[in-house]
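Could you join me in thinking about how sequence relates to backbone shape in a protein? To get us started, please write out a protein record for me. Would you write everything just below, so we can both look at the same thing?
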Amino acid sequence: MIHYSIDVLAALKEAGYSQSFLKKEKILSGSTVSQLRKQQPISWSNMEIICDLLRCQPSDFLEWTPDD
């Protein structure tokens, strides 16, 4: 199972990107912010935006664990 290994919204906030800023500036949609809040999957393009904002790799916030 793939899941978030960190609180992505908290990491974005720490980097200076509040949820309201992300939505207001149309960086991420409200539905994407909601998906992140609920720890739900997001699109590849949104993952790329997060990587750009946080200057990181997807593996810095995604983790795979086996379904046992």
Q: What stands out?
A: The longest helix spans residues 44-54. The chain has four helices and two strands. The mean pLDDT is 96.
